[in-house]
Amino acid sequence: MKRLGILTSGGDCPGVNAVVRGAVLAGVRTGQYDFVGYLDGWSGVLSNNSVPLTLESVRGLSRLGGTILGTSRTNPITSGGAPAVIASMERDHVDGLIAVGGEGSLAAARILGESGIKVIGVPKTIDNDLSATDYTFGFDTAVQTATEAIDRLRTTGESHHRCMIAEVMGRNAGWIALHAGMAAGAHAILIPERRVSLEQAAAWVLSARNRGRAPLVVVAEAYVPAGQDAPYFPRGLDTFGRPRLGGIGYLLEEQLQELTGIECRATVLGHIQRGGAPTAFDRVLATRLGMAAVRAASKGEWGVMVSSRGTDITTVALAAAIGELHTVPEDRYLEAEMLFG
């Protein structure tokens, strides 16, 4: 029987455990593969830190948030590269890898694949920003969590006649802000794809207040106001050289209060969007992606990412999967903009 290694890399995400369960069940029950799980992402691969994955060890995982394998933002390309990964795989008698990750992790998987390593990617990100798949698991859960939190902010804002500002994650894509903002009935949604001025945002806030509402603003963490050059990232860069975003909501609190004269309060939802049990949609999608990764391995389809297209699961080249970000198109934002103010 052949052996596959599974690793979960990058930011944690609801549904990762369902991927692991789906892959192990598909491989073991067809008699094709047994499995090892590498702990803490690429760090576990490089340090040869692994555990066996059996039918018993993945029982009941689909409903659990987080990842039983742990994760890290270790970049294998700068931490030993392909030779170190190959040596680890040989020690564990692993024939191929299933890498569950987002943009940065899958970019590393692509480079390793081009070096001859057998790897299959599974798209994991709450940001929904991978262009070669219709949806990434974790997104639906993040939107649901954000919507519930924003609903709670609305009630306290109405009690005090304040403008409430909710900052959500998403990196350079505004999908979480768009969906959660529309679901919660936000009076303004500010995303990186649309350079809305602070004056326009203030006008929407005043319009809502003049209609007797407590204004509600949802802002994506990478939103850049018109006239500015880059998102706000006071915490520097991560291990993949990307800005560590977060905090734009607090800047807006001060700026919108000054422009409107309305008392403003900001809440940064942060990592609460990553935690908790996955929604039913994400459990099903993640399970199907895990099973599809094993099918791809059995067919010798290496260097690909499993992808959702409509209701089907297919495969695409890793290079195509990370070629460009899946961002909010203008027509989707204009559709939501009709509801502002």
> Which regions contain 5 or more consecutive residues with pLDDT less than 50?
none
Please identify, by name, the CATH architecture of the largest domain. 3-Layer(aba) Sandwich
Separation of the first and last Cα atoms? 61 Å
Strand fraction equals 15-25%
Secondary-structure element order, as H and E? Answer: EHEHEHEHEHEHEHEHEHEEHH
Rg for CA atoms: 21 Å
How many β-strands, per DSSP?
Answer: 11
User: Sheet bearing the most strands, described?
Assistant: 7 strands, mixed
- The strands making up the biggest β-sheet line up spatially as 3-2-1-4-5-10-11
What is the fold-level CATH name, i.e. the topology of the largest domain?
Answer: Rossmann fold
- Described by the principal axes of the CA atoms, the overall outline is elongated
Describe the structure.
- The chain has about 350 residues and is α/β, with parallel strands linked by helices.
- Helices cover about 40% and strands about 15% of the residues.
- A seven-stranded mixed sheet has the order 3-2-1-4-5-10-11, sandwiched between helices. The protein has a four-stranded parallel sheet with strand order 7-8-6-9, sandwiched between helices.
- Strand 1, helix 1 (about 15-30) and strand 2 (about 35-40) form a beta-alpha-beta unit.
- The radius of gyration is 21 Å and the shape is elongated.
- The chain starts with a strand and ends with a helix.
